[in-house]
Amino acid sequence: MKEETGDETVLDVLERRGLTRRAFLQVCAAVTSALALSPAEAARITQVLASKPRPTVIYLSYQECTGCLESLTRSFSPGIASLIFNDISLAFNDTLQAAAGEAAEEAKDSAMKKAWGKYVLIVDGAVPLAENGAYCTVAGRSAVSDLRHAASGAAAVVAVGTCASFGGLPYAAPNPTGAVPVSEIVRDRPIINVSGCPPIAEVITGVIIYYTTFGLPALDRLHRPMSFYGNSIHDRCYRRPFYDRGMFAKTFDDEGARQGWCLYELGCKGPVTHNACPTMKWNGGTSYPIESGHPCLGCSEPDFWDKGGFYRPLSVPTGHWSRAGVMGAAAAAGVVAGLGAAVAARVRQDRTHKPDAGGDTNQKTPKS
Ligand code: FSX
């Protein structure tokens, strides 16, 4: 086996392990299919992975539940092993690495020095600012100071999870720690938000590999990659025909729920939530919440904890992101359009259907 060097390509790494070019082409095919690359990009992938050094990746965690990393470790294609051993050089992650304490901090400092200005910084978790950042400290240093330092040597920052992207649970009212998203601390580096609580595993790996191979992907107004967040859950929902016909489950165990009708009246946030759940699904494409009979909670959108109740039908959001104007006209228009369609559908339903023979009359219709 050849000796490990700092600037290896994916092909070098596989050859060093004694794997054949066939294995390399399999990695290229896995990356191509995971990223749904255009024909032009797919044609370039073999050349890029054979010639471009693997990027150094530093992965830091702050206020979070480790659900994002749990999700990442369950990635199927490309799997976490392939990502770490083949596609990137993961220099620091305090959950996955064996080192702890001072040895871990030294490893982080040395990896950052070696790749200063070039590494990709992945961050999960929000960052508390109250009490001078005392609510989250690592090795005696506040998260905010740690993040500022790490980001100043990064080529780009990938905020993994809704906590890092938009504040998430720590940011929810009354936000006692003064938590903020990464974008409020880092203002001079490109930021890719990979939201979701947690994000889909293959979306995390896909974004990391896309960035490290091709650079910044096309982003939406909330800095999320369009390829994964360009459509709403509602756009691709297999229950959509029931929504359009005004056929709604009203309780979790009524006839409508058993027949797979739309979950809008049970609080589904699909019309205002952008993510790839209906197409990529979870656990290697097995299912996703709506397919399992549960409404979408809207976990990949800003302020999802504060929007007035997971099981209440949509209404115009009132949380702090929307007050600050971050929610934006497009999402608000989506809510209004969704409500308009639902009300119109409901009128049609009342005129033409009696879909819920055993329905729960206590459930309310959507209201603005
Ligand atoms: Fe937050 Fe992630 Fe939810 Fe948890 O790292 S997005 S609470 S799944 O773990 O940050």
Give me a quick take on this structure.
Helices cover 41% and strands 10% of the residues. It has 368 residues and is α/β, with parallel strands linked by helices. The chain binds ligand FSX.
Question: How do the strands and helices of this protein lay out in sequence?
Answer:
Elements: H1 10-16, H2 21-35, H3 39-51, E1 56-61, H4 67-72, H5 80-87, E2 89-93, H6 101-114, E3 119-124, E4 127-128, H7 130-133, E5 137-138, E6 141-142, H8 143-152, E7 154-160, H9 162-166, H10 168-171, E8 179-180, E9 191-194, H11 201-214, H12 226-229, H13 233-236, H14 240-244, H15 255-258, H16 277-280, H17 320-323, H18 328-352
Parallel strand pairs: 1-2, 1-3, 3-7, 7-9
Antiparallel strand pairs: 4-8, 5-6
The structure holds ligand FSX.
Search tags:
single chain; 368 residues; alpha/beta; Rossmann fold; Cytochrome-c3 Hydrogenase, Chain A, domain 2; 3 domains; 5-stranded parallel beta sheet; two-stranded antiparallel ribbon; 18 helices; 9 strands; 41% helix; binds ligand FSX
